[in-house]
Amino acid sequence: MVACGALTVAPGSGVYTPQDLAHKVVGLDYGNGTAYAGLQMLEGAMPREAITTCAASANAAERFAALMRGEFEATVLQEPYITVAVKAGCRLVSTTFFYGTWVADPDVDSARQAAFLRAITRAVDRINQNKREYVRYFLRDWAGRPEVDALMPEDFDLGRIQVKRPGPIPEADARLAWEWMASWGILEGSFDPASQLDNRVAQRVAEEELSAA
Amino acid sequence: MPDPTATLTIESISAFNGLDVLVARDEGLFAVEGLEVVIARPRSGERRLSAAEDRGTLVQPASNQGQLLDRHAADLFQG
Description:
The structure holds two protein chains of two kinds.
Chain A: E1 2-9, E2 25-28, H1 33-43, E3 52-55, H2 60-68, E4 74-77, H3 81-87, E5 91-99, E6 102-104, H4 110-129, H5 131-134, H6 136-141, H7 146-149, H8 171-183, H9 193-196, H10 200-212
Parallel strand pairs in A: 2-3, 2-4
Antiparallel strand pairs in A: 1-4, 1-5
Chain B: E1 6-10, H1 15-26, H2 29-32, E2 35-39, H3 67-70, E3 76-78
Parallel strand pairs in B: 1-2
């Protein structure tokens, strides 16, 4: 799965670019992919010492509400709250995409892993054939929230909904991610692909799917 | 093909990070592979953190991703 994170400011904010957020407080849901995506968007725009963050809720609805109350200058949202925010007049000052990665217990056997990945591959193909049809899942997740219930599938920018067939994680990418997190003090120790990365099942399934296509 | 009764328990997901898994479950694609996928619910104390005092810091986040796997209540989580 490819997740989209959008660095978002409230209506009326004087912030128009990520650079404008230097020394301004950005609410991040520490420990989650959206927070790391936020750091990377900010890091590309300013020196690290200018990045100023605070802990925000892991719940996107609560982060959006806190943004609208002015508790911080910006936050990172994901769908459907990106669409909610845009509809409310918020401005997206940067958007990025990042992979979600499945972490398996060592006891999970390769047969179950492979079955899981094959099924996801089929699902990805179906979603890519008709993304608009599957937008309803984003609405379903947050049903009962008035700001989400007010959305129509047509409100969504399909460019922000991306899915990709599962495949092996390139070792260089995993190393870069590890070293980047270690540079922030979030991880300790050095990257060890032998113990931290096992691509065998994903590689095999990806090759089988490619040859079957 | 796994054992016909094979089950895989995964940690909670939502559309933004697991649309493909939700579609695979709802459209019977796991069943075609002989796999039952169960989405585990966190215990009440393991719900998504929202209280300010529970959020941790950038360096020591209080994220609950992986909690169920740590106590062997899930086989997979998405990090």
